[in-house]
């Protein structure tokens, strides 16, 4: 909630009352009337308030995996440096491919032989010296040998382990000469910019959650810095046993300040009200489960029940019962009754320093 300098004591009213009223009996009130109470007042004003949901969560990467090889073999090449950033498609590891290369060479020979046999069969067919069955068999053999070659070439290409997306590499888990299988973890890889702030919200806020809302948060490991994200995921499922909803916000991270796993304190802006009526918190009187304020009008105090919205240190949003510009009592309420005459307490006089004095 933004605080503005419009929260002012009614100095003009105080000055006017300090001159006295010839019909008033001073603090004792008008002659023959009820006594007046001396009160301090302020003016209700409009301001922009943010209805925020507080939560805690952590930073997580949008994409995060542990790379594994797709073919078995020995590691013969490590093509990156631990902790470095890599682009999508960057080669990271090389698995021994000598055996696969030999298999590919044999498959190429089988393919060439099948292609020659097919060509001869077609020529014989044109000369009426071969049957349709022989041609179909030769065509099937040619397709089969080509498919076998394609499969081996695919496996040969997969002996080079590449980054599936751009990001930062983690700790390497194998060394040169290690024999790896498809279940062996090689290295972790995760995106770093942008990151995500993930947190849990109680289900009672379900109707107030939507994509595009703004999230501000602080990170315990980075004191003094505030980060801003935009909600891009609201889980449609309420999680048990806490009955919470998972929310994730996309957060720019160009300097790589945020790292996955960092603890964060967040505020989700569920609603922004630009013309909310705001009063000093001291004017609110809780009584029997309700909230009241005293409004001064025509020299008398009128007690009104109010509906409150957002409360922040020193101020409170009033959703009903008080309008902007109303004069509310902030001091002396304990002596008031509904309809009682009041006098505005004068502000203390401030002596300005002479020219050249002071700071």
Quick structural summary:
Helix content is 18%, strand content 41%. The protein is α+β, with helices and mostly antiparallel strands and 359 residues long.
CATH topology of the largest domain: OB fold (Dihydrolipoamide Acetyltransferase, E2P)
The CATH first-level class of the largest domain comes to Mainly Beta
Strand order of the largest sheet: 2-11-14-13-12-15
- Helical amount among residues, as a percent range? 10-25%
- Please tell me what the overall shape is: elongated
- How many strands? 21
SSE string = HEEEEEEHHEEEEEEEEEEEEEEE
Level-2 CATH architecture of the largest domain: Beta Barrel
Total of DSSP H or I helical runs spanning 4+ residues: 3
Rg calculated over all Cα atoms: 39 Å
Beta content comes to 35-45%
Name some characteristics of this structure.
359 residues, alpha+beta, 3 domains, six-stranded antiparallel beta barrel, Elongation Factor Tu (Ef-tu), domain 3, 18% helix, 21 strands, OB fold (Dihydrolipoamide Acetyltransferase, E2P), single chain, disordered C terminus
